[in-house]
Amino acid sequence: MDMSPTDLKPAHISEAEWTLRQQLAHCYHLVDHFGWTETIFNHISARIPGSEHYLVNPFGLNYDEVTPANLLKVDLDGHKVEPSPYDANPAGFALHSAIHGAREDIHCVIHTHTTEVSAVAMKRAGFGHDDFYGAQLTGRVGYHAFEGITLFEDEKPRMLASLGDKHILVLRNHGVAVGEMDIPRTFFLLWTVQRAAEIQCAAGAIPGDNVALAPAVSQRCADLTAQLIREDDFAEKFFAAMVRRLRPRG
């Protein structure tokens, strides 16, 4: 997606931060492109390298209206640390701040509640691991009991206990949060979770028994996927290819 002249880098922003802003804006546009948005709600957050500040969307904008220049810089409490004509949504940042504040290995967090993900979050068994994508989630999912809208400080320790050392947190009766070391890896993880939810919902609508995978097979799938996205440039190539889908053809 081409940026307008109003999205030129301001002088006070470093090249590293501007690159991150461009990548994060693309991530917002991709979530919109795939129809995973919840109107103006939810966040995709990214930590600015070497700081305790984070980039998030201005509250009230659609995801396709997010640009590198209008992204907000906030502290761990979700409050703006630089002037902006746009409002922040500290209450909506509560889930993100809990994860960012506790996990040094997670630099990007995406929260969604698509129809398919929310449907799986309703099921007592949660994600199955018998399809190609669900198998890749084996041993990687934590589950957190619903306590109402995630706004309050006292819930954070319980959310973190539910997440543990994992990178996927299913919010029961609600949605999901995923986090990884950077934006491309986090987006790829979200895509995998979304595909697993879609297939699980579709398979559940078809009469007849599913073919079960042996636990060792599904665990091997998860281990190989985790190794692939950490050691290779797989996630970067995937993210770049998805960004190209945003560009008009012709």
UniProtKB/TrEMBL annotation:
GO MF term list: actin filament binding
One of the Pfam families matching this protein, by short name: Aldolase_II
Ranges for domain Class II aldolase/adducin N-terminal: 22-201
Cited InterPro entries: Aldolase-II_Adducin_sf (IPR051017), Aldolase_II/adducin_N (IPR001303), Aldolase_II/adducin_N_sf (IPR036409)
Signal peptide start and end residues: none
Any Gene Ontology CC annotation: cytoskeleton
Similarity comment: Belongs to the aldolase class II family.
PANTHER family, alphabetized: ADDUCIN, PROTEIN HU-LI TAI SHAO
Protein name: Ribulose-5-phosphate 4-epimerase/fuculose-1-phosphate aldolase
Source organism of the structure: Sphaerotilus hippei
Organism placement in taxonomy: Bacteria, Pseudomonadati, Pseudomonadota, Betaproteobacteria, Burkholderiales
